[in-house]
Amino acid sequence: xxxxxHAVIIRANPITVYKHIEEREAKFPIYSFLDSRPFVALRLxxxxxxxxxxxxxxxxxxxxxxxxxxxxxxxxxESYGPFKLIEAIEGEKYWFKLKTRLGLFDLxxxxxxxxxxxxxxxxxxLVSPNPNLMQRLYWRMVSPIHKLFSKxxxxxxxxxxxxxxxxxxxxxxxxxxxxxxx
Length: 182
What we know:
Layout: E1 2-10, H1 14-23, H2 37-46, H3 50-59, E2 79-80, E3 83-89, E4 93-99, E5 106-116, E6 119-128, H4 133-162
C-alpha cells in the first residue's frame, strides 16, 4: 500500500475551507512558473499521460482556454484533468481518483476536513491500496517531490483562506500541480 498525508490547521470552519477549495479553479495550487507549457506537459508525461502532454505542447494556451460559461465547481463523476471527482461531502471530504493510461498511477487523492474547535485540520492525502511493482518503484522516485508540493499546496490554501483580503483576483502567484480545464 502507498499512503501519504500532510495536514495543516486553518483558522476557519470546515465548510468555509471546503467551499474555498471547491470554488477554486486550481484545485491543487503550487507555483505559477510551473503553469508554463513545458512544465505542464512534463507533469502530464510524468504521470503517464503522454498523449495529453504532447497535445498540450502542440496546442499551447488554446489547450487550456475556458469554454464560454464554464463553471469552476465540478461535481461527482466529472473530471479535472486526469483526476475524476469520486466523493464530495461538504466540510468532510473532496476526493479524486487518478488512473493513468500507462498505469503509473492508480490511486485516490484529495482533501479531508476535520473540525478542531472553530478551526479545521485540512489534510491532503493520497492512497493506492494495491500498487503493482511499477507503481511502487515510480512512487519511490516521485514521492520526495510530491511531499514538497503537498506542503506547498496546504500552505497556499491556508494563506488564501486566513487572509483573503491580501489576495487579489490575479492568481498569477498560484497555479495547480495539475491545472487542467475540460
